[in-house]
Every structure is written in structure tokens, then in C-alpha cells.
Specification:
Layout (H helix, E strand, L loop, with lengths): L1 H5 L1 E6 L10 E7 L2 E9 L4 H6 L5 H7 L14 E7 L9 E7 L15 H17 L12 H6 L3 H9 L5 H16 L1 H12 L2 H7 L5 E3 L8 E3 L5 E3 L6 E3 L1 H11 L8 H14 L8 H22 L4 H13 L5
Antiparallel strand pairs: 1-2, 2-3, 3-5, 4-5, 6-9, 7-8
Helix pairs in contact: 4-11, 6-7, 7-8, 7-12, 8-12, 8-13, 10-12, 12-13
């Protein structure tokens, strides 16, 4: 990493990058080719603190060779990763990632729906990722599932406020969770206790099939290159988990920009997983119900900020149905 970066002919800070984690980005040029250098620093990046993976999850994936095992339908841009001393005061340290500059292929940051073709590819490639690592071992459990369900919890908002963090997302999380009980009390009765203690949900999901999940399939992290391969960035919350947790997250966070209904999207993903050789019949209904509940455990605060609308009503209905599945 040091040798590569030392040979850069251009190096400039990307001050207006769209990320919300606190990571720092630089644009650099090496041998005439554009790259992005991403710095994950514990002092600046609230998602690192929330994950509990203090060295940086992408560094662990790199060191374990997991990124080289991704299915061929992915364009994986990371070409180097290394530990890096922090620059902040107090607890710091993390890692640096050198990536080919794929910004030209990323989904544009607009409010417009993505195309049906791109949406379908994302679902098919998500299924391919899950099928490739079906039943994966402990070396893939980088960020524990409990940590992933606590990332956007009231605890995270309180912890970040106590440190004086100025990051916007934890502040919105802190505002949204109390609001949920006002705008959707039936939903809050189910998900707010789980937001504080996801243990019953985590235990229930552990009885269903597991694979390697990315955990942040938001459109800001996605793209399609000129050969149709999917670009998937921000490997900062990966680990072993229920495959449908990735699908539920995708449906929840990208809801305003999807070109088809949630039900049709769920069916498309299931068809792709079946086509990849995974028999879904024995476990599908239970895991789907639990993962849809889990998505509201992660995003109840965000849905509440938008008021009680058709979107929140959909998630509320599914969360209330799934509550009976918790032990």
C-alpha cells in the first residue's frame, strides 16, 4: 500500500463524497490510472465503532482472502488494504483501502427509480453471493449478527451523543426511535424492545440457514460496470447471517427507488436463489418473516421520521405477523 500510494502523481481529498459514516476519501492517480483511497479511522467513523470491528471489517476480509472468493458476477474494486494509524485525538486507528475508481459506474445519487434491468441484476447477483457461501464457516463471521442489529439502535445514538460525535445519522437515529411510538404505536410495541435487545430475533434467525452477507445493499454502494457486473462497495458490516437479511435491508433502505413492488422483488430473489441450486421450501417463510421484522428493527427510526404512510404501514404489518415467531 505504501509503495503504491508513494507513486501517485495526483492526490486530492474528496471533500463532498456522499458517504455518511465519517470515512475520509482521496482521489489519487497511479501510473495514469485513477484510484480512490479510503481511510477508516475509529476516531472519525461511527460505523466502525458500532460494528465493534475496530481494525476495520474490509481489512479482515482482505487478510482472509474472502474478497477474492466473490462470484464472477461482481466487479470487486479493492486492490490493497493495510492497517493505518489514526489521526484523531483519543481512540483511533483503523485501515486504508486502495480501490480502482469505479465512480462512473455507480448508481446516480438521485431520487429516480433505477431501471428494472439493473434492479433484477442486483437481486440475481445478491442471490449468487449467498449461494456461493451457503453454510459458510466461522472465518466469514467478521461482524457478529448481534452487532449488525444494534448498529442503528437507540444504544448507538446514546453512545455517539455521549462521545460528542457530530455525525448526522446517529443523531437522526436518536430522534426517530422515540417518534416511532407516536406515529406507529403498534409497530413500536413490537420493534422498539428488539431495538434495545435483538437477542430474541438473533436466536430465532439462528435456527434458519446462514450464509455470508454484505449487510448494506443500499444504492449508494451499488453500480453496474459496462459488462454487466455488479459493483458492491462498503464492506464494513459483513459476516455470517440469514441471506434474507440482505434482501430485507435492500427493500427497506431503497424503497423509494425500486421499480417493482416488494412482493415482486422478493419473488425475483427467490427464483434466483432456487436457480443457483438452493432449496428454499423448508425455511423460506420463517426466515422471510423474521428478516422483514429485522429490517424494521434496523429502520424503525427512519420510517418514523417520514410519518405514518403506506411504506411504514407495510413494514408494521409484517413486523406484527412475525412477532409470534420469537421464542
Amino acid at each position: 500500500m505504501a509503495e503504491l500510494v508513494a507513486g501517485a502523481s495526483v492526490r486530492e481529498v474528496l471533500a463532498h463524497a456522499p458517504g455518511k459514516s465519517g470515512a475520509r476519501l482521496e482521489r489519487i492517480v497511479i501510473d495514469g490510472q485513477p484510484y480512490v483511497l479510503k481511510h477508516l479511522d475509529l476516531a472519525d467513523d461511527w460505523t466502525m465503532r458500532a460494528s465493534g470491528c475496530l481494525a476495520g471489517a474490509p481489512l479482515m476480509l482482505w487478510e482472509r482472502g474472502i474478497l477474492t472468493q466473490l462470484p464472477g458476477c461482481f466487479n470487486q474494486p479493492i486492490v490493497g488494504a493495510a492497517p493505518e494509524p489514526g489521526t484523531g485525538t483519543g481512540p483511533s486507528g483503523g485501515c486504508a483501502l486502495l480501490m480502482r475508481d469505479v465512480s462512473g459506474w455507480l448508481v446516480p445519487a438521485t431520487d429516480e427509480p433505477i431501471s428494472a434491468g439493473q434492479h433484477g441484476r442486483f437481486l440475481a447477483h445478491m442471490a449468487a453471493l449467498h449461494a456461493a457461501f451457503w453454510g459458510c464457516g466461522r472465518e466469514f463471521d467478521v461482524v457478529p449478527v448481534m452487532h449488525r442489529y444494534l448498529e442503528l439502535s437507540p444504544w448507538t445514538a446514546e453512545a455517539e451523543a455521549a462521545t460528542g460525535s457530530g455525525q448526522l445519522v446517529p443523531q437522526l437515529v436518536g430522534r426517530g426511535w422515540p417518534l416511532l411510538s407516536e406515529v406507529a404505536p403498534a409497530a413500536a410495541a413490537v420493534v422498539t424492545p428488539l431495538a434495545y435487545d435483538p437477542g430474541p430475533l438473533v436466536d430465532a434467525l439462528a435456527t434458519t440457514p446462514q450464509t455470508f452477507v454484505h449487510s448494506n445493499w443500499k444504492l449508494d454502494n451499488l453500480g453496474t460496470d459496462d459488462t454487466g457486473l455488479t459493483i458492491l462497495l462498503d464492506w464494513e458490516q459483513p459476516g455470517c447471517g440469514a441471506p434474507l437479511s440482505d434482501l430485507a435491508w435492500y427493500l427497506a433502505i431503497n424503497c423509494r427507488r425500486l421499480p417493482q413492488s416488494k412482493e415482486a422483488s422478493i419473488a425475483a430473489y427467490r427464483d434466483a436463489l432456487e436457480a443457483a441450486g438452493i432449496d428454499t421450501a423448508p425455511w423460506w417463510d420463517r426466515q422471510l418473516a423474521l428478516c422483514l421484522l429485522g429490517a424494521l428493527v434496523q429502520f424503525g427510526w427512519e420510517k418514523a421520521l417520514g410519518g405514518y404512510d403506506e411504506e411504514l404501514a407495510w413494514w408494521e404489518t409484517h413486523a406484527r405477523r412475525a412477532a409470534a415467531l420469537l421464542g
